[in-house]
Input
Amino acid sequence: MTPIELPPFLFFYAAGLLALLLSGGPRAVLMLLIPVVSAANLWLTPEGSYGQLAFLDFQLTIHQVDRLSVLFGYLFHIAALIAIIYSLHVKDRLQQGAALFYAGSALGAVFAGDLLTLFVFWEMLALTSVFLVWARRSERSYRAGMRYLVIQVSSGLLLLGGIILYSRETNSLSFVEIGLNGAYGWLIFLAFGIKCAFPFFHNWLTDAYPESTPTGTVFLSAFTTKVAVYALARGYPGTELLVYIGAAMTCFPIFYAVIENDLRRVLAYSLINQLGFMVVGVGIGTALSINGAVAHAFTDVIFKGLLFMSMGAVLHMTGRINGSELGGLYKTMPKTTVLCIIGAASISAFPLFSGFVSKSMVMTAALENDFPWIWLMLLFASAGVFHHAGIKIPYFAFFAHDSGIRVSDPPVNMLLAMTIAAALCMTIGIFPEVLYQLLPYDTGYNPYDATHILAQTQLLFFSALAFAWLNLRNLYPPELPSVNLDAEWCYRRLAPSVLERITHGVVTANNAVRRMARQLFNRVLAYISRHHGPEGILARTWPTGSVVTWVVVLLAVYLSLSLY
Amino acid sequence: MSTEKTYFFDKPRNVRLILRVLYAGCALLFALDFVIHRHIYHSWENLWGFYALYGFVGCVLLVVVAKWMRTFLMRDEDYYLRREQAADGDKQGGEGRDHDAH
Output
């Protein structure tokens, strides 16, 4: 292994260790340099397998570079650099160190050439990212972090179980297409699905991400779920089940997003919605749809990061994030407002913004491969995402009713990070070839034809019209401080109360058994004391005379017996 | 407050302007459907203004259904937290209950 072929995670792990020791300027310089140096190293690494070791009977490949992993590799470097710039003002040593370890783990996972290496980084993602949730240092974040950790580690254990079965079945650990074959296929699928926020396994995301710090959420939104999309794209391309799961993921979160008050939780639901498009793309499994899934992961990390950064800026400056407490911030945060709107336009897939050039590939693939109903669902979800992420987020934070809050734009490093992300959103939107040339397949796809532009613009304008109409008619649901029940109710409410009932039942039964045993014991005791007690028949002292009489009787019986 | 600067959307005139631009945009896009020939992948797309109608109806339905979902999904803000703290209070005895009192 020559020095230029080092796996990127090593750079980030080394920097993470140093970041725990350094502070101030030196730490800032280190954190800024690491993604640049590591990306340069990746640029110089030709495709191939590096860092191969023998483990028992298996061949491990710690660093495997191919088109798919390189694309995610560059993406994670860009995401890390943007998030690091955004968090430069943070003085929390642990949080900064954890962020570097977390980014490194994501890079380790996408360059893992075998499943065991993937497993190690899969668990490292969980262990390092939970510190970003806990970094908020509130009771809520502590509890959310614990739940997050349990679910994430469980996903890892399922993966490990699947890997063990896989290795026995195939005598190999290499991470190639797995498919839903046998128990191992399903176990690994479920493990990937949990991290990818499949329906019913999605609440760790909406629970933990909004409880993190303003900067922590930006890191969180970039890595874990995209590693899962990458893993699905590598292990399960063309698995039809994914089309239906993905379509469900695009649709159900938007309803929650419309009635959610915490604006970062709205974005968390919208993150699941965007993941849905990627999952559909992987499920269809054609060159165009896989390209679409991967491209959408790329653009989503940047525009979702931008939206999380703009809401993080609002939280950082005002200390509030609930839509019911915000509004009118455009007056004193004009730059953040504009940057947020660029993110909103990108996620809504307006022509000339990045979402347009990536999402359209998945939509086109759905139609071309005869999934018309899925296509209708995706179209509904596209209108819905514009509604809740494109309009609701900027509207309730920066416009709507004036909350009277007058805070300035955030520190310059935050603005710079948001500006870079916004510039990337527009660059990819205007020059899609920049992104397309990195994609796994060459499909010659062109997003900018008249049909497509017209259809998408109509969809978006009339969605905006619906919003305006509902708002003017006062039909739009107001932002209310509340919690909306979701699948998490099962483990946060149902399971504890069932457990409580069971515990209660066991305690009651235990008490009843003890009471009965005590009563029984008392009765036995009373019986014994009746017969053996001082007054008992067996304990009575008999007079000598009567004993002699009985002896005589006994002897008489013997005598009479001996006569015969 | 009277000395505070008047901002763009403080003037109803500007809000009306934005709305008019939106209405005009919608009308124009709807009209373009009759001018530009779209490639059709599916028969549904043959419908004039299919995307416009779908976007509008979809969003109205989305909001109506979401509003209705509130009737059975909405709970107090501390719905989970209250119970979790109470459960911890039982386990930790006095310490936890002190915490609840905040």
Notes: The longest strand of chain A covers residues 48-55. Residues 492-563 of chain A form one domain.
